[in-house]
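Work Package 3 (structural annotation) set out to generate three-dimensional models for the target panel prioritized at the project kickoff. During this period the team completed the workflow that converts sequence records into discrete structure tokens, so that structures can be stored uniformly alongside our sequence database. As a representative example, we reproduce one entry of 138 residues exactly as it appears in the project archive.
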Amino acid sequence: LKQDDNNMGCDNYPGYLDKDCIYWWYDVPEFLDRLNTDAPAGYSDWRWANVKELVSIVNYEQYDPAVSEAFNNGCVAGCTVESCSCVNTYEGYWSSTHYPYNSYFAYVVKHKDGWSSPAYNESPSLDLRSVLVVRGGL
């Protein structure tokens, strides 16, 4: 699902499609429930992107953002998902993928430079990050 820069607040649809909305890892399931209830783009089967999906949009030949143009175009303050596609380049994106050596960590991908690494995901983690949602198979 595309993200925008609508600056409408992150508590309600369509505001929470803003690239600057950030969440604690353990709050993402609640976010997904709200999202699928609101059924943006007419779909209610959105799921949390895994680390492979987040890395798959990285373009290492670009920087800030290090993503293909399809994922960051027309991104200006106030744009909506109908007129732009944006990525958060500051916070990074939580993935649904746990770190295999310690379940208290999950992978994070930063689309500023393509960096990915495990990050502590349990309360009281201070790590608030963006979430990218996708549809379809894993």
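The first strand starts at residue 47 and ends at 48.
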